[in-house]
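User: Second chain of the day. Same drill as before.
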Amino acid sequence: MVALSSPGALRPLHPLHAILLAFPLPLFAGALLSDLAYRSTYHVQWANFSSWLIAGGLFGGGFAVLWALVNLFRRGPARKGRLALYFVVLLAMWGLGLVNALVHAKDAWATMPEAVYLSAVTTLLALVAAWIGYSGFQSGGVR
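Assistant: Same format as last time:
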């Protein structure tokens, strides 16, 4: 079997990078869901869940951002635009996640309504980053 690839073709993520990229989306989405649960029930434990989920998303997402930065400088100019967009979206996700973590560090009721909005935007950015990152996979590339 021979793999067909051209110099400008999309390549899949490295498996470790794919694993790191898999963390932010479910963790930030879980934080959004627990923020919505806190907003409707006022049980403080939901705010605590959000804080921990955001911390986990920042941890995994931080390594994904670093990996994307290294890939940005390693790859050739043919894919710089896509890699730069991927890095910028990941960096924006991580930055807003950090702001979200700082908002969640306040008293539970003081986080509302900013926490819900920040969690929603962070989750959306995590979804866009995952979409861009995983879109390098191609089907039918091997004959």
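The helical segments are 15-21, 24-41, 44-74, 80-104, 114-134.

User: Great, on to the next one.
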